[in-house]
Specification:
single chain; alpha+beta; three-stranded antiparallel β-sheet; 2 helices; about 30% helix
Length: about 80
């Protein structure tokens, strides 16, 4: 996990070798093209998502009842930025 985080830090800092490594990993995992679709229900909650790529994935969300969400500890949270 730390190696991955270190690699993203290098990418954000403009390290061209790290960018090339990440691009290679993404191409290996997803192929040359990926499409992401998300369907929402009437309340704006995710109902279904589909990733169409080298290995397609589809997830259906249901049973939206009351629940308690407990955030993970701060050291387990990663902020993704563009």
């Amino acid at each position: 996990m730390q190696d991955t985080e270190d690699e993203y830090v290098k990418v954000r800092a403009g390290d061209r070798a790290a960018q090339a490594r990440l691009r290679g990993e993404l191409l290996k995992e997803f192929g040359t093209q990926a499409t992401y679709e998300l369907w929402l229900d009437a309340q704006g909650r995710p109902a279904r998502q589909r990733l169409t790529a080298k290995t397609p994935v589809e997830i259906t969300f249901s049973d939206w009842g009351d629940t308690t969400v407990i955030a993970p500890p701060a050291d387990q949270v990663r902020v993704l930025t563009q």
